[in-house]
Amino acid sequence: MSDNNSVFKTVRFEPRMLSSDPNCVCEIVLGCTLTSEDGEHSSYIDGIWKPAEGEMLMLSDLTSEKASQIISQFGSDCGWWDSLRNQIAAQKLQPVNPENYEAPEITLNTELPPVELEEPVTPEPEPTPDPVVDDVDEEEDTSE
Question: Is the whole model's pTM more than 0.90, yes or no?
Answer without folding.
Answer: no
